[in-house]
Specification:
about 210 residues, alpha/beta, 8 strands
Length: about 210
């Protein structure tokens, strides 16, 4: 995974001078983030965003921004003005509005990293909720009744996550088996709402992949 991130960064910086990366939260990408600490790259060209965030205090360990900081971002010299955490401590509505403003001048993301939940959710786009798939949907959505705690969150919309040159889903754990099966069967799960022009890559860890092939 780390190799793919660095390759995407190299392509973007060579072509456009900057690398716009959206990070996934949760435990799955933590190892890849830690390995990025050792990379010898031009960190000043990296621009970091988040696919979603929990409405918790900024220093809460359950925040995606805190996890990424502790695993990687606190150890590398990416300029502070290029680290765009979602200000979810303000509450879902204000934070979503603020992130819409943050993303206003950002075109296509170079790389979006996403996870996959047991119910097929990705970022904080949950079944039965607004996924932001309609034309004109805002870049960021306020979530008030997430089925996983905490109930208030902010998430990038499916439309905004799809505005990317490359999207990679990182999937591990036996509990994700049903979601992958449903995805393959073209069932209407949130992950299928992410539809970049180039399609998506799905990286499945070995044990789960073996089960899917069995």
């Amino acid at each position: 995974m780390t190799v793919r991130i660095l390759a995407a960064a190299d392509r973007a910086i060579r072509a456009r001078g900057q690398f716009h990366l959206v990070l996934a939260g949760g435990d799955t990408p933590r190892g890849a983030y830690r390995r990025l600490r050792e990379a010898s790259v031009d960190w000043s060209a990296w621009c970091i965003y988040f696919g979603d965030e929990r409405c918790l205090p900024a220093d809460d360990g359950a925040r995606n921004s805190r996890m990424a900081g502790e695993a990687w971002l606190d150890y590398v010299p990416i300029p502070a003005q290029r680290l765009h955490a979602i200000p979810a401590e303000r509450g879902a509505v204000q934070a979503a509005q603020a992130y819409v403003e943050t993303l206003h001048a950002v075109g296509e993301f170079d790389l979006v990293l996403l996870g996959l939940g047991e119910d097929g959710h990705t970022a904080s786009l949950f079944p039965g909720h607004n996924w932001g798939t309609a034309p004109g949907s805002p870049d960021a959505l306020a979530v008030f009744d997430a089925p996983k705690p905490p109930p208030q969150r902010v998430t990038l919309s499916a439309v905004r996550l799809s505005r990317a040159r490359q999207v990679i889903f990182l999937v591990d754990g036996e509990a994700k088996h049903r979601a992958i099966v449903d995805w393959r069967a073209a069932k209407n799960i949130p992950a299928r709402a992410i539809t970049p022009v180039a399609g998506v890559d799905v990286l499945v860890e070995s044990a789960l992949l073996a089960r899917l092939k069995g």
